[in-house]
């Protein structure tokens, strides 16, 4: 699959990456190479292959799913940099 310079510009804009017009041809070639490699991966037969969580086979540790009262809120909030009225206080990020 071939990516055009306009498509590379749009991808850079969506990713919030500043790319000079002079660098767009190289970016388009690089993105095209990535998509070509992904197409090669689609040709691999993976039927019967189990999904992996890591490169070494291990079983994930699990715990009982037990409903509790939530512990001690004062103890939970003791490490918070800012806690008000029994809750974590965080800076406002949305206007």
From TrEMBL:
EC number: 6.3.5.-
Pfam families tied to this protein: GatC
Complex formation: Heterotrimer of A, B and C subunits.
Organism the protein comes from: Paracoccus rhizosphaerae
Ligase among keywords: yes
Broad class of enzyme this protein falls into: ligase
Family: Belongs to the GatC family.
Record carries keyword Protein biosynthesis: yes
Keywords: ATP-binding, Ligase, Nucleotide-binding, Protein biosynthesis
Catalytic reactions on record: L-glutamyl-tRNA(Gln) + L-glutamine + ATP + H2O = L-glutaminyl-tRNA(Gln) + L-glutamate + ADP + phosphate + H(+); L-aspartyl-tRNA(Asn) + L-glutamine + ATP + H2O = L-asparaginyl-tRNA(Asn) + L-glutamate + ADP + phosphate + 2 H(+)
Job description of the protein: Allows the formation of correctly charged Asn-tRNA(Asn) or Gln-tRNA(Gln) through the transamidation of misacylated Asp-tRNA(Asn) or Glu-tRNA(Gln) in organisms which lack either or both of asparaginyl-tRNA or glutaminyl-tRNA synthetases. The reaction takes place in the presence of glutamine and ATP through an activated phospho-Asp-tRNA(Asn) or phospho-Glu-tRNA(Gln).
InterPro entries membership: Asp/Glu-ADT_sf_sub_c (IPR036113), GatC (IPR003837)
The protein, known as: Aspartyl/glutamyl-tRNA(Asn/Gln) amidotransferase subunit C
